[in-house]
Design brief:
alpha+beta, 2 domains, four-stranded antiparallel sheet
Length: about 325
Amino acid sequence: MPRTAPAPNMVAIPGMNPGTLVAGGGGDGGGGGKEAPDPSENESQENRGLTLSCAEGWAMKNRERMRDLVWLGWLLLFATYPPLVSCGGTQTDDGTGSEGGAATIGGGSGDSTGGSSNDPSELATPCPGPCGDEGERPKPLPRPRCPKSEPALGGPCDSNDLVCGYGDALTPHCRTYYQCTEDAGDLIWAASTPFDEQAWPCLELPSDYCPANVPTEGDACTIEAPGIPCGYGNVSCLCSGRNPAPGNSGTWQCYGAPRNTACPATLPNIGEGCSEEQWGIQCNYTIPTTGYCAPPHSTVFCHQGEWEPGEDIACVL
């Protein structure tokens, strides 16, 4: 029966329980056990010791190599998948970390209740009432492609399907939009209506409708112009209810700017510029309230240096 060299020592992988490597002898009898002495074996104790020493030397030498390879593999794994070693920490675009939460872009601040969130979907949503931060927020930059002022209908344009918004109304459906479209082989400016004017009519609130000060959240109110909020600086308050028709009862729902302080304080117009630090962030400037669906363009997304329409906000019935 041929002899086998001793099994080399195995390196335990971190995180695994080290076990005992058992080299079982084989035989026609079917099991482990001591190997019967070979009568023809003339190898001396000295030669066997030399053979064992060589095998042990091979094992020692290759154990170092195996250990280096194992650690190199772990280092590559951690470098490729940093969340495995982040222990729930937050990774921000400036390279700093904080406790808990998911990765965010542009950072964020706590809400008005003193809590904080690093969930990108929550950072995009408005603060319930005024945000806790009082610092100055970035303002929209000059328009990279859209005209600085409203274009003339039928006037020439050079970027097919480009949409540009204008105005400073609190809600997007009370602003004006233009789209560069092709007409008889020419590109011209045409009026754009991204929403159903019957579902989101731009109504005007009576001059004496809005309270002098920010109303208390949840206080009773009478709906006058569905979907049109009262403005108090960076805070908007909307009277809404399950049946948001004029004259029906509702409650005040107030909200501020998005939690993400990289978002402007007020809704940017579609086509206005955004900085490189804002690329990839989404900002929501309304809240889903009972019986009310937010109009399109209530959420904007910074893409390649300009604000574009963001994701639509789900309705609350």
